[in-house]
Amino acid sequence: MKGLIIAAGKGRRLQKKGDSKPLVPLCGVALIERAINQAHQAGMDECYVITGHQHQQVEAFLTALAGRIELPITTIFNPDWENSENGVSVLAAKPYLHEAFLLLMADHVFDAGIAHDLTHAVMPEDGIILAVDYALDNPLIDQDDVTRVKTIHGRIHAIGKSLSDFNAYDTGVFFATPGLFTALEESCINIANSSLSAGIQHLAVRKKAMTFDINGRFWIDVDDPLSFWRAENALLKHCHPGH
C-alpha cells in the first residue's frame, strides 16, 4: 500500500522548536519520521512526501531515513507551497498514485492502529474514508484550530473549521482513491477553493465521503507549543504508564 504525507508548510506557530516543522523532534523523533513510522506500521510499503518550506533539508533527512528503515520514500516538491492551500500539495502527487492510498499530515501523531483499521474499511468508489473522533470533549484538541465534521449515518455531510453544527473532529488520517484528485481539481475550478476540506466536501455532496470512528484512540495535531507539550506528555505517559 502506498502512502502520501503532506509536509510542505512552514509551521510558523512551532518555529521556536525548529525552522523546519517536519524535522522538529518530539520525544527524540522527528515529526515526519513519526508520521512515516505510523503509516509503515499500518501497512504502507511505499511512501510519497510532499515538501515545501526548507525542502532540501527535509529531502536530505528522508533520503537518509529511507536507507535506515529500508522503505522507498519519494519526495515531491510543491513550488507553490507558500501561496496555496493544502489541496494543491495533495494534487502534486496525482502522477504517482493510481490506486487507493493512505493520506496523512506530517504534524499529526496518532495510534497506528487507526490507520491500519481504516485501510480495511469499505471504500466508496472513487471516494475517501476519513477517520473521525466523536469525543467532542477530547482534552488534546485545539478547539480554535481543529477541522470539524458533521456526519450522518457514517457519511460526511459537511467539513470545515468554521462549522457550528458538527458532531466529530477530522483527525487528518484518510484512506483515499484517486477520485480525491478529481474532486480537488473541480473544487479549485468551480469554487476557487484549493483546500483539502473543499475537495472532501465536493465528494461529500456526491455521497462518496465516508467516516471511520476511531473509538477514542489517541491522536493529536502538533501545531503550536501547547499541542507539542500535550503530545509530549501523552507519549511519555504511554511509554511510562503510572508516572
Entry summary:
By secondary structure, the chain is α/β, with parallel strands linked by helices. Helix content is 32%, strand content 26%.
Task: Present the secondary structure layout.
Layout: E1 2-7, E2 25-26, E3 29-30, H1 31-41, E4 46-51, H2 55-69, E5 73-77, H3 86-91, E6 101-105, E7 108-110, H4 112-118, E8 128-133, E9 148-152, E10 155-160, E11 168-176, H5 179-191, H6 196-205, E12 209-213, E13 219-221, H7 225-239
Parallel strand pairs: 1-4, 1-6, 4-5, 8-12
Antiparallel strand pairs: 2-3, 6-11, 7-13, 8-11, 9-10, 9-11
Helix pairs in contact: 1-4, 5-6
Task: Give me some keywords for this one.
243 residues; 13 strands; nine-stranded mixed sheet; Spore Coat Polysaccharide Biosynthesis Protein SpsA, Chain A
Q: Explain this structure to me?
A:
By secondary structure, the protein is α/β, with parallel strands linked by helices. The chain has a single domain (2-239), classed as Spore Coat Polysaccharide Biosynthesis Protein SpsA, Chain A (Alpha-Beta Complex). It has seven helices and 13 strands. Strands 1, 4, 5, 6, 8, 9, 10, 11 and 12 form a nine-stranded mixed sheet that branches. It has a two-stranded antiparallel ribbon with strand order 2-3. The protein has a two-stranded antiparallel ribbon with strand order 7-13. β2 (25-26) and β3 (29-30) form a beta hairpin. α1 (31-41) crosses α4 and α5 crosses α6 (196-205). The longest helix has 15 residues, at 55-69. It is globular. It starts with a strand and ends with a helix. The model has no long low-confidence stretch (mean pLDDT 94).
